[in-house]
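Appendix B. One record, verbatim.
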Amino acid sequence: MSLEKQGQSRKASDGIQEEPCAICRALKQFQSDYIDMLSRRMPRSLCNFHTWLVAKVAEAGVAAEVLLRMLERALKDDSTGVDCSLCTWIAQEEDRELGEFVQILDIPEHLLRLRECGGICIPHARKLFDRVPNDLRDEIILALQRQAVELRRELVTLSRNAKAGIATHAGLLGRAAEYLVANRGLDIKR
């Protein structure tokens, strides 16, 4: 079930041309939308990461309600074996996004954007391999390689310019950081 926040929710297919990973970006947006709408869909349980995330970014009253429910459940019974509701929902959304991503690769303009811009991280590329024909696997591998080569070239130039005292473009560092973070994926447990 996709969470939509006044039509602002992003799908992987909306941003294939954007770097670094359209699927990671869609899942981060899904998670963010979920936290924003937490009062409408209360989790049964949360992992450590999502418990801290709720405590940090959710509206205080809603976060208190969620944490109170979890505390009461923990006092009543052993809830340690219960999976994180948000991790489960993110995994379901990831599966849906991967399926949609495969479908849009049949559209020539989306395949061209993948060839030119990348737009997929290594973990999601691996998950796509089981869903796409061999020729698309090669396209995904080439897109990943192009992204890394381009980023390396730009970082080498930036590093040399910074050492020489030449003004640098800070946006590149953000892109590099995002590429590296996205290549670790969201580490969704199945």
